[in-house]
Amino acid sequence: MSFSGSVAVVTGGSKGIGASIAKSLAKRGLKVVINYSSSEDDAFALSENIKKDGGSCDILRFNVADFEESGSAFNEIIGKYKRIDYLVNNAGITADNLMLRMKEDEFDRVIAVNLKGVFNCTKHVIKPMIKNRFGSIVNISSVIGLMGNAGQANYAASKAGVIGLTKSLAKELGSRNIRINAIAPGFIETSMTRKLNILQRKVLIDSIALKRLGKPEDVANLAVFLLSDEAGYITGETINISGGLYI
Ligand code: NAP
Fold it and tell me: CA 136 to CA 134: how far, in whole Å?
């Protein structure tokens, strides 16, 4: 795969899907800025690993839900590298509860990180991208945003919101040669899904056509393709990668 740009930012890149995307981009010669909010040790270990393999990366702590904090972080990145060509809005959280029991704070926190976080980070990269007349953005949504899930009204709303935002921005930014796509993963083996108990896992696997959870690398392969020049005529799409959980 080929890349016309050279600098990528991956939010929530310290573990799980984001870490796999960061590794994969670094392996292809991109300079990668790995964001996290609290998992400093994971971010540091990942960056050491990438550098050991000859890659180039920085780690940068900021809370994607905080507009000012993310603004300063993106200014710092642009100050250092003079450009940002690729953004992966991957940082995300869950706070599951049935609506009857869901607290206002559980709803607000999930929307703030998963949806407002995408706004905050995208808002700060589009100016330099417009200036360079080049950019590619991938937003990590979820099949839950397409199909809904009992106990995840907050998460489903945030991820459906990301899909609407992606489509709108593709229309706004296409004329500036900026592409923006979303990925809707099914259930992927990360710390997010490690919370499932054995019974929940069995029921879930029974409903997946490929009879397994996905791997972070499965999602990374798709994200890297969507960022690459080979996907140069794809924008505004949401690609489902769920092993046939949602068809
Ligand atoms: P994960 O292993 O829990 O990793 C989440 C990442 O997001 C971590 O690096 C975490 O860093 C970061 N993060 C969380 N809140 C943040 C904040 N406020 N600011 C900056 N970084 C923050 O989760 P994952 O499973 O890889 O999920 C990655 C993305 O894929 C999420 O958007 C998730 O909704 C989506 N997704 C996951 C699955 C799945 O089955 N795993 C399925 C569909 C979609 P800190 O720990 O430092 O905060």
Answer: 7
